[in-house]
Design brief:
Structural class: mainly beta
Low-confidence stretches: 1-24
Strand content: 35-45%
Largest sheet: 6 strands, mixed
Number of strands: 21
Shape: globular
């Protein structure tokens, strides 16, 4: 089995699992040796999932609540020693890690998948994506498109995250398009003075722009299609902090104007 290892994130901090919830898999911010992957559930209407590389579970949440709901006594020794996995998983609109952390995998070829965590259809893979992960490189894996309830499938894709060199005085931003029924879009950032910054070139569905250096600060961010001055998706008051690297991702159903599935911009730190 290809191994999964834990490394510290930028500083020599040790993450200690508490008695509540804890990540079942281990994650990092940089591949000291190996490959690093982030996992996102941006498939419209997709169920909550755990992510896998081949048959190896990469992300899951366990609970240390092992007591009987009837009398409060603790009788499940397996739960006490290893925890009990919840059915929550990574829900639509979320990523499987926090604080800019990546999961570490040994380099090689994998089938990446998201598998249902709910009791009904538990373990069913709603995506299967072949990917070759290279040593020392970063990647993001996206569930995308619109979930097919009949086939229990959703689209998915992988993009490389070519992180720029560390620079504590500035920030870097790029754009990924994970909305299956969108046109190619370009991300723009507007600061308080109204100055507009274009982030790379237009990204079609499953595409990514290059990382662009910008001044740290608060921005209103919007996507535009070619030839239009009307924003497609907008998010206000987004902070880009010095020394950080960010990916802004568009996801959702472009035919919907309100509700959970409307087009949205996610801002996640890569580092």
């Amino acid at each position: 089995m290809k191994g999964l290892r834990l490394f510290a994130a930028l500083v020599a901090a040790v993450v200690v699992a508490a008695c509540g919830e804890k990540n079942a898999a281990q994650h990092i911010s940089a591949p000291t040796a190996g490959s690093a992957v982030k996992f996102f559930n941006f498939g419209v209407n997709a169920p909550a999932v755990n992510f896998y590389a081949d048959t190896q579970k990469i992300s899951a949440v366990s609970s240390a609540t092992c007591s009987s709901a009837t009398d409060g006594k603790t009788t499940d020794t397996l739960c006490l020693s290893k925890g009990q996995e919840t059915t929550s998983g990574t829900a639509y609109g979320a990523n499987a890690s926090t604080a800019g952390l990546y999961y570490s995998l040994a380099p090689g070829s994998y089938t990446l998948s998201g598998r249902i965590t709910a009791t009904t259809d538990k373990g069913v893979a709603i995506s299967n994506t072949s990917a070759t992960l290279e040593n020392g490189k970063f990647y993001s894996y996206y569930l995308s498109g619109i979930y097919n309830t009949a086939s229990k499938t959703v689209e998915a894709f992988v993009v490389e995250d070519p992180l720029p060199a560390m620079d504590l005085t500035t920030t870097y931003v790029r754009f990924v398009n994970a909305s299956s029924n969108s046109q190619p879009m370009t991300l723009h950032l507007k600061n308080a003075s109204g100055a507009d910054t274009t982030v790379g070139s237009a990204a079609a569905y499953k595409g990514a722009s290059a990382f662009v250096r910008v001044d740290p600060g608060n921005y209103d961010i919007s996507t535009y299609v070619a030839g239009s001055t009307t924003p497609v998706i907008t998010k206000t008051g987004v902070a880009f902090n010095a020394g950080r690297v960010y990916t802004v991702t568009a996801y959702g159903d472009m035919t919907v104007a309100t509700g959970t599935n409307k087009p949205t911009l996610d801002n996640t730190a890569n580092r």
